[in-house]
Amino acid sequence: MALNRSDLGLLALRGAVGGVLIAHGTQKLFGWFGGGGLEGTTKAMEAMGFHPPRQSALAAGLGEAGGGALLVAGLATPVAGAVVAGTMAGAVAVHAPSGFFAMSGGYEYPAFLGATGLALGLAGPGRYSLDHLTGHAFNQPWTGLLAFTASAASAYGVVARRRHAVRLAEERAAVEAQTQEGSGLS
């Protein structure tokens, strides 16, 4: 059997993107590669307005590490792509106020990872994958439709809840600032 360039390309892309996601997820979950671990990520999630923060930290870490591992393996590829896209939607929401480019703290990088996960989930894993070895048992059109629908709905809910929490925190800070100005404490 001759090697297929398209399938090799998909394998390389799955390995690269999945590997990056595994590294980021394990930073969040275990503190590997200089990450904060679950406790540090929980504090960061709370500061970013994600509630409940511990569950948000766990979901982000599992979404990245788990979605990345599934991409690397080429297993349940539509589900992996949906998980990655949904997880990165939350990261995009955090970085969006800083604009597009990563050098300014923008959402360029998580958007790229999410779009790549989406594309891989839609394109499929290629021949060099566990999905191929299992006869595509977990790589069916209905699986992709269900996974992407659930991921989009979940991401929308998480981002909307965060946006609401951030807005409330900003309003509280504005009221506190006005109260301090009125009391002569400024």
Q: Can you describe this structure?
A:
75% of the residues lie in helices and 0% in strands. By secondary structure, the chain is mainly α. Helix 1 (5-30) packs antiparallel against helix 3 (53-73), helix 1 packs across helix 5 and helix 3 packs across helix 4.
Poorly predicted sequence stretches spanning 5 or more consecutive residues: none
Q: Whole-number average pLDDT?
A: 94
Report strand %.
under 5%
Q: What's the helix count?
A: 7
Radius of gyration: 19 Å
What's the shape?
elongated
What is the oligomer described by this structure? single chain
Order of helices and strands: HHHHHHH
Measured distance between first and last alpha carbons: 76 Å
Count the strands? Answer: 0
Secondary structural class = mainly alpha
Binned, the helix content reads: over 70%
**Biggest sheet descriptor:** none
What does the secondary structure layout of this molecule look like, with pairings?
Elements: H1 5-30, H2 37-47, H3 53-73, H4 77-95, H5 108-123, H6 130-133, H7 141-182
